């Protein structure tokens, strides 16, 4: 009697990962959770919608930035859901973006008209739900004003100022964008683990979402995790600005904020002192010029910076914008036929110095 052959147990189906994909098009099924998606707008053309950006992640924690052009958005817009898993097929492969990058991967993805996008049933797909790229103060300072990478950071909330912070308004009453900038904004100070304090500006919808959740929170958050921020030079210091792709997580939202909260310890025993080298530490208050002068006269010698907001009441062009002054007494020189002279120093052939008027 012939012995029956033993059959090997069926192997689980494996999907390609982004690192193994090459060429111009991928015609294989790729299993990816959708981490987040956001609108891409052209602010120079009246906030014209260009499409939707997506952040996808594969089974090896490779995150890739994808793009759906505006003319194809109607095919997929109603099917996009964050934290859901999809099988993609027949998409275009391009080189990764050079600016406003939210992924380190060499590839990017563009949705074509022939792409297959199938929502997978809920199950244990064993794929990470997040791909965070944390950076510290020095890392952000090294790429300030480059618009290159949009990194993430986490820290302890130290100060908060903004529009309608005590208002219970919802997104339905969010101020409309005026020109290229929204009138809805928030200003935060976060202290990092190394003691550095960093400024954060939240704009538009991101500010409105933060304000709404802040007002609804019975227990105000201690730790914030803010993603994909753009470091810019604002006044004398660097500040991190929210972007369309920014997400904000509070104390117990994700594992990273929970771990940071644990590190802080009960009653803030592990809270580091604010580093003296941080130029971002400020005291937000409105003062007059007289109060600033009094501060300079009475306080101990120290470096400080002020933002001055004023209103132009009148321009007096009859006085000109500058004058030629005496190099000795700084008074205005008078003109003769072939030379300049000073009535106060009683000297002719004086060397003039241009001085600008201060109104």
Automatic annotation (TrEMBL):
Q: Where is the Replication protein A 70 kDa DNA-binding subunit B/D first OB fold domain?
A: 30-114
Q: Fetch the Pfam families from UniProt.
A: DUF223
Record's SUPFAM superfamilies? Nucleic acid-binding proteins (SSF50249)
Signal peptide extent: none
Which CDD domains has this protein been placed in?
Answer: RPA1_DBD_A_like
* This protein's name: Uncharacterized protein LOC104728396
From which source organism is this entry? Camelina sativa
């Amino acid at each position: 009697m012939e012995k029956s052959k033993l059959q090997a147990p069926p192997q689980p189906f494996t999907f390609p990962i982004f690192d193994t994909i090459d060429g111009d098009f991928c015609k294989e099924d790729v299993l990816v959770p959708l981490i987040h998606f956001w609108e891409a707008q052209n602010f120079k053309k009246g906030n014209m919608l260009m499409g939707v950006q997506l952040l996808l992640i594969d089974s090896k924690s490779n995150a890739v930035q994808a793009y759906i052009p505006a003319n194809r958005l109607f095919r997929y817009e109603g099917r996009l859901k964050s934290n859901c898993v999809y099988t993609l097929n027949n998409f275009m492969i391009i080189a990764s973006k050079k600016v406003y990058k939210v992924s380190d991967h060499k590839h990017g993805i563009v949705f074509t008209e022939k792409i297959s996008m199938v929502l997978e049933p809920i199950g244990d797909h064993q794929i990470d739900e997040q791909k965070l790229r944390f950076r510290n103060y020095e890392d952000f300072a090294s790429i300030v004003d480059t618009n290159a990478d949009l990194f993430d950071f986490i820290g302890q909330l130290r100060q908060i100022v903004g529009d309608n912070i005590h208002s219970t308004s919802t997104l339905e009453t969010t101020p409309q964008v005026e020109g290229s900038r929204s009138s809805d904004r928030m200003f935060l100070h976060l202290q990092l683990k190394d003691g550095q304090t960093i400024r954060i500006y939240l704009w538009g919808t991101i500010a409105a979402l933060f304000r709404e959740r802040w007002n609804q929170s019975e227990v105000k958050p201690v730790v914030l995790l803010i993603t994909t921020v753009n470091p810019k030079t604002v006044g004398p210091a660097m500040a991190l600005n929210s972007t369309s792709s920014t997400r904000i997580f509070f104390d117990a939202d994700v594992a990273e904020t929970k771990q940071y909260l644990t590190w802080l310890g009960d009653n803030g025993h592990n809270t580091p002192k604010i580093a003296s080298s941080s130029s971002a530490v400020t005291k937000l208050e409105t003062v007059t010029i007289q109060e600033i002068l009094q501060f300079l006269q009475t306080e101990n010698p120290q470096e400080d910076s002020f933002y001055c907001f004023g209103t132009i009441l009148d321009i007096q062009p009859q006085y000109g914008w500058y004058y030629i002054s005496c190099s000795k007494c700084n008074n205005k020189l008078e003109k003769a036929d072939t030379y300049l002279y000073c009535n106060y120093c009683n000297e002719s052939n004086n060397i003039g110095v241009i001085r600008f008027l201060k109104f």
